[in-house]
Design a protein that fits this description.
The chain has 374 residues and is an alpha/beta fold. The protein contains eleven helices and 14 strands. The protein is 31% helix and 16% strand. Strands 4-5-6-8-7-12 form a six-stranded mixed beta sheet, sandwiched between helices. It is elongated.
């Protein structure tokens, strides 16, 4: 709550408003509270006031040590005696509409307005695109480039503050540093998704948590492009959308892929067909793309042509694309993907075979032959 108030105060401070948040003294048991309190001081959020409700006034001492004040320019802290409890709205009713943001440089049809160098890998290219945008878009906050925000240590408190900022008439995008571990952020990400705050996160695809950790992120789009041109299309979609979006940027492109069509927009929830048709369909994600492609080559050499669908939409999975698959079996590469795919397709009465051994292309090819033999 205090971190969310920091995001609101970042907007209110320059326009003269005040943000007040009341928390019980027991909240000091949560280490994230002090992280949010430190953020308020570092960001010089003079419009923020915290009312601490309890019986022991000394509980606010750690805030005063951080630089919070009792009087003058904030952030300010006040101590209040216990209050009579008030009825609160249901905690499940969190999602509501937020002010829409329309970036002036975005082209009609959600096409990227910036130059796209297809020889650049997605992580480097995305950094160039964000720099291009931040120089032209007053309503865009690129957290890793914006004054104040770029100096903060990444963590759940900063994440929640930026998410609230995205609900205050700003488009907020954060390029996370390499090696970031999102598992400690999952609770905060869940709350952001439930509230429908349109935060945009970009990170290295290799740093994405395993699929079971991502599954609870209701309300989020989690996308991983196959190449640089598709990454540009995905980022354009994200910046024109009011939903929370997490894009994983692959550091390498392991296969020679059919090129993303020039001037084609990205449509959320779709995958990318690398091969259409065939006697079976291999379904892979960015982690198993290279092995799935190699398995398709092995099978083709043996006279078995298979389709290959890459799940560039990681959450939700692109089950609609599989309506275009051939009549043969569907074989998912890996247990995590297979279980999630089977669960997502329960209403379609479609069986999903799983290549549980994804240690080699030969093992995946063997799983396809086994599925065909049934």
């Amino acid at each position: 709550m205090l971190a969310v108030a920091c995001g609101a105060a970042a907007v209110e401070t320059p326009r003269g408003g005040t943000v007040v948040v009341a928390l019980p003294a027991t909240a000091f048991k949560d280490p994230l509270l002090m992280a949010a309190a430190a953020l308020a001081v570092r960001m010089h959020l003079t419009s923020l006031m915290l009312a601490v409700v309890g019986t022991d006034p000394s509980v606010v001492a750690p805030l005063l040590d951080l630089g919070w004040r009792r009087e003058g320019a904030g952030p300010l802290v006040r101590f209040c005696p216990p209050l009579e409890a008030a009825s609160l709205p249901p905690t499940t009713d969190l999602r509501r509409e937020w002010p829409p943001v329309n970036l002036r440089t975005l082209l009609p049809g959600a096409l990227p307005p910036w130059p796209v160098d297809v020889t650049s890998l997605p992580p480097a290219a995305a950094s160039d695109w964000l720099a291009w945008l931040s120089a032209r878009e007053p309503d865009l906050v690129v957290a890793n480039l914006a004054a104040g925000w770029r100096d903060q240590v990444p963590g759940p408190a900063v994440l929640c503050a930026l998410a609230q900022l995205a609900g205050e008439g700003r488009r907020v995008c954060w390029r996370l540093p390499s090696g970031i571990d999102l598992k400690a952020w999952l609770d905060a990400l869940q709350q952001i998704g439930r509230r429908g705050l349109g935060l945009k996160l970009l990170m290295n695809a290799n740093d994405l948590p395993p699929r079971p950790h991502l599954a609870p992120l209701v309300g989020w789009w989690v996308l991983v492009p196959a190449d640089t041109r598709e990454a540009a299309a995905m980022l354009t979609y994200a910046l024109s959308s009011e939903d929370p979006v997490l894009i994983g940027l692959p550091p390498t492109i392991p296969l020679v892929l059919p090129p993303w069509p020039d001037q084609q927009a990205y449509h959320p929830g779709h995958g990318r067909w690398l091969v259409h048709g065939g006697v079976a369909t291999l379904v892979c994600d960015h982690r198993t793309l290279a092995l799935a492609g190699a398995a398709a080559v092995l099978l083709s050499a043996g006279g078995l042509r298979v389709g290959v669908l890459l799940c560039t939409s990681v959450l939700p999975l692109p089950v609609g694309d599989l309506d275009l698959a051939g009549p043969g079996p569907l074989v998912a590469c890996g247990s995590d993907l297979g279980i999630a795919l089977a669960s997502a397709m329960t209403d379609r009465d479609v069986h999903v075979d799983i290549a549980t051994d994804i240690g080699s292309a030969a093992a995946i090819a063997a799983a396809v032959r086994k599925a065909l033999s049934r």
